[in-house]
Design brief:
With 405 residues, the chain is of the alpha+beta class. The chain has ten helices and 18 strands. The longest helix is centred in the C-terminal third of the chain and has 20 residues.
Length: 405
Amino acid sequence: MSTNLASAPAVTTETPAVTGCPVHWVADLASSAETAAPTFVDVEGAPNPKEVREFFEQYKEYMTLTDAEWRLRVQDVIAEIAATGTYVHTEEELTVGARLAWRHNTRCIGKLYWRGLTVRDFRDVTDAEAIADGCLDHTEFVHNKGRIKPSITIFAPERPGQKAAIVRNSQLISYAGHRQADGTIVGDPNTVDLTDVAKANGWNPVQEGRFDVLPLVVETGDGTITVHEIPEGLAHEVEIEHPTIEGLAELGLRWWGFPSICDNVLSIGGINYPLAPFTGWYLAPEISARDFSDTYRYNLLPEIAEALGIDTTDVRSLWKDRAVIELTAAVLYSYDKAGIRMDDHHTAAQKFHKWSKSEEKKGCPVEAEWSWMIPPISGSLSPNFHEEFEDVFKLPALIRRPPIN
């Protein structure tokens, strides 16, 4: 199950702003009558009232609260905001909000598992070293002896006048992109700027290779940047080999075990959590057809085709197609051999298709961005290729943080 969040575009003008506190507000009750519903008024100083109201309406439905229970909690929230300018989610609210954010994600083909998301509350962790330790703990927790456990670990939120810590990495585990004097890149071109930041703040790799695990770059609320090495073995790297063609293993390709996306802002009920690492398991073509093959990433397809014994002199031989299919087979074989869960694109597409049809029968809308439900290889073989989806943005949500240079 891929999270399909790693390469999502930055926040656009069509989605709510996610930096700092949104529209500030204070709330009061419509009347003193016991049955009165709460109303919300925009005032300087607190979260967006529309977002707060809509979240608690969803929370009421999810938790099947009575009207009295719901009104009592909302009154507490109103009083807390009036007194402090914000409010604190209960653990149950945090869990429901994070699960709904996954369900609402229109670019994740694996969101059918949304109700099983494990939500870990690390909101009291604010020290840089402790944040790094928490992120490393998240990595080991989700590994789960190779049976990847879909999880999100949520650190402190933004508060009025108080920024929260972030991790500048887009994923907790990633490879460095070393900028060379001649303008070329050794490693992953996607992380060149972050690699420069890590080096400027004390990271000194022994050598500059294609697959150097980047340290975590933590930035606390006061703007202080610190660098924290990933312990050996915690990346759970997988060496890529083909089940029958020996030449591929000689390239020394490898990839980390699972994606842990950490550049999304988790927005729940007007409260923004800028550090909330989210992990699912990989979909094989994410690595084979994108990370290794995209021309703006590793761009290794010609080299891989040669290692596989495929003639690249004539495009009409379909060497690119053949190479990426064999590479996908190699990635699947290698992850299976390493004992780390991974889906193939056919299985993932079938699961999503079956779930979406089941949801439709129950009258539950399934919003999705069509292009993200289609795998980067063999697209027309997916049952989702022949479907139409509505791409609707809903809160709570995981919103891509704009790149930080």
